Amino acid sequence: MKIGIIGGTGKLGAALGGRWAKAGHTVFLGSRSADSATAVADELRGRLGGDIAGTTNLEAARQAEVVVSCVPFSAQEERLKEIAEAAKGKIFVDCTVPLVPPRVMRVQLPAEGSAAQRAEGFLGEGVRMTSAFHSVAAHKLATDATVPGDVLVFGDEKAARDVVVGLAGDAGLRGLHGGGLPNSAAAEALTSVLIFINKTYRVDGAGLSIIGDLVEPDAA
Predict the structure, then answer these.
(1) Selection from 111, 136, 120 nearest residue 207 by Cα
(2) Residue of 147, 116, 135, 184 whose CA lies nearest to 19
(3) Would you say 141 and 95 are in contact if contact means Cβ atoms under 8 Å apart?
(4) Which residues of the chain have pLDDT under 70?
(5) pLDDT at position 216
(6) pLDDT of residue 220
(7) pLDDT of residue 217
(8) Distance from C-alpha of 156 to C-alpha of 12, rounded to nearest angstrom
(9) pLDDT tens across 98-128, in order?
(10) In CA terms, which of 58, 62, 124, 172 is 20 to 30 Å from 196?
(11) Which residues contact 154 (CB under 8 A, 6 or more apart)?
(12) Cα radius of gyration (the chain)
């Protein structure tokens, strides 16, 4: 697939981009600065191989079939409004966690209910909205190591969620359907809890694992 990453020079965006390129996808790393994005893409391609290039956020969204947003909560509105038209008709994956420094260990969900629902409002109609990758540590994804834990994928359209679950698998993670987009609030809130656990128990990147004997969901 052709994947455009908004905020692709950040830790999470670059880590996911490198893994997806290595898995055989075509990746466009987006940034406000095409030069910065190109430098990061060149480093990833030299280290991991694959088809990955740097460009602007808008061009990354234009070129992609799947658009992934890894921008900070503070920049979410500005960045998404810039690329809204280019995202129309495409699967959109919002990875934003509503962290409000300095109290990042306290859950602070936005008035819309979740950062994903807030993003949906900025993008407008015609976007196949999903959210995912809230509970995985970016610095662990940036390595070649196997990263334990699960990724919950939210969205009101199951077919769109299916694609993102597959992309989680291509990044070496287990993706699981988490239900409709409002449910994203649970994973977004859990990120602050995981940050608290990291500090309290001196964990290097606590994550989420769902236990139980899971059966593949129906195709319908």
Answers:
(1) 136
(2) 147
(3) no
(4) 219-220
(5) 86
(6) 45
(7) 86
(8) 24
(9) 999 999 999 999 999 999 999 999 999 999 9
(10) 172
(11) 116, 130, 131, 132, 161, 178, 179, 180, 181, 182, 183, 184, 187
(12) 16
Structure tokens at 178: 């988490």
Rounded Cα–Cα distance for residues 176 and 161 (Å): 9
pLDDT digits (tens, 9 = 90+) for 136-147: 999 999 998 999
Euclidean distance between CA atoms 157 and 97, whole angstroms: 21
What the block records as the tokens of 118 is: 């807030």
101-111 in b/e form (b: 16+ CB < 10 A) is eeebbebebbe
Residues 6+ apart with CB under 8 A from 158: 177, 217
How does strand 128-131 pair with strand 150-155? Answer: antiparallel
Q: Which CATH class is domain 2-201?
A: alpha beta
Identify the pLDDT of residue 219. Answer: 57
Tell me how far apart the alpha carbons of residues 199 and 13 are, in angstroms, rounded to a whole number: 24
Nearest to 136 by CA among 76, 77, 204, 82: 204
